């Protein structure tokens, strides 16, 4: 699945699971964690960027192009060790990304800024990075520096409207990274066997597009990455995300006033 499609899929998955608003009397999300509107919007920002994290193993991916030479070097190194759609595309990697988010989000450090006062450093850094990645993937802004400025501004805003990030921040990272795996599972290349690093390879006569000779598994409903079916699905996900975001934003003024 293409980078921008991963990003919008992460946002859509988060809104479907965490969304608590309604439109025309109908809920637009499952409200699994009973988050307020600010936390839902903040989590969507994080899930958008987190849905790109597994591609840290791919030197041509959005995440590689987001930080100049540094991110290119990181993705080349990870790719040379893990291979593309290898270790970073596993359930174990989802757990690792989520644990890292818990660690960074839980850092006991506050920065004091003019006007804004004290803000939690860890969550701001993490949200800023995720927002910058998502913004770049969705082509919201151009250039190398501007996505990071947008990410920083968004992170500071979120620190003000949703300062309690203990739960929703790692949850959004988990949703985003897991959605990436689902997206790649639906393409012909598939992802590593679910129990990786314990990989079960099929007997030669049972190997197929669903369970491949190298042990990868796929449910290739979308065909090859970038197919017309993938574009159609992500167009629908974009529309859903837009509707649910508008619904969540509509409830913010009342919540903030209260």
What class do helices, strands and sheet pairing give? mainly alpha
Order of helices and strands: HEEHHHHEEHHHHH
Strand content bin: under 5%
User: In what order do the strands lie side by side in the largest sheet?
Assistant: 1-2
The rounded distance between the terminal residues' Cα atoms is 42 Å
Please give the largest β-sheet: 2 strands, antiparallel
Description:
The structure is a single chain. The protein has 258 residues and is mainly alpha-helical. It has one domain. It is 56% helix and 5% strand. It contains 10 helices and 4 strands, in the order H-E-E-H-H-H-H-E-E-H-H-H-H-H. The strands form 2 sheets. The protein has a two-stranded antiparallel ribbon. A hairpin with a 3-residue loop joins strand 3 and strand 4. The mean pLDDT is 90.
Topology (SSEs and partners):
Blueprint: H1 3-18, E1 22-23, E2 26-27, H2 37-50, H3 62-65, H4 68-82, H5 91-105, E3 110-113, E4 117-120, H6 121-137, H7 146-161, H8 168-185, H9 228-250, H10 252-257
Antiparallel strand pairs: 1-2, 3-4
Q: In brief, what are we looking at here?
A:
This protein is mainly alpha-helical and 258 residues long.
Keywords:
two-stranded antiparallel sheet; globular; 5% strand; 56% helix; mainly alpha; 258 residues
């Amino acid at each position: 699945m293409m980078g921008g499609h991963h990003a919008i899929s992460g946002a859509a998955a988060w809104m479907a699971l965490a969304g608590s608003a309604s439109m025309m009397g109908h809920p637009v999300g499952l409200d699994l964690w009973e988050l307020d509107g600010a936390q839902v919007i903040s989590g969507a920002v994080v899930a958008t960027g987190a849905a790109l994290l597994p591609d840290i193993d791919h030197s041509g991916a959005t995440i590689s192009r987001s930080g100049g030479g540094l991110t290119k070097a990181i993705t080349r190194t990870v790719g040379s060790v893990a291979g593309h759609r290898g270790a970073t595309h596993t359930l174990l990697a989802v757990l690792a990304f989520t644990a890292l988010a818990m660690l960074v989000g839980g850092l006991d450090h506050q920065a004091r800024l003019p006007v804004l006062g004290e803000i939690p450093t860890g969550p701001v850094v993490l949200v800023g990075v995720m927002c910058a990645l998502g913004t770049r993937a969705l082509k919201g802004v151009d250039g190398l520096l501007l996505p990071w400025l947008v990410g920083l501004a968004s992170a500071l805003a979120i620190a003000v409207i949703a300062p309690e990030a203990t739960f929703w921040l790692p949850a959004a990272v988990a949703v985003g990274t897991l959605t990436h795996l689902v997206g790649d599972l639906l393409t012909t290349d598939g992802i590593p066997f679910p129990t990786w690093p314990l990989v079960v390879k099929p007997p030669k006569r049972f190997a197929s597009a669903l369970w491949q000779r190298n042990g990868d598994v796929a449910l290739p409903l979308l065909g090859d990455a970038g197919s017309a079916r993938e574009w159609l699905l992500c167009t629908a996900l974009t529309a859903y995300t837009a509707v649910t975001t508008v619904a969540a934003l509509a409830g913010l003024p009342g919540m903030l006033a209260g």
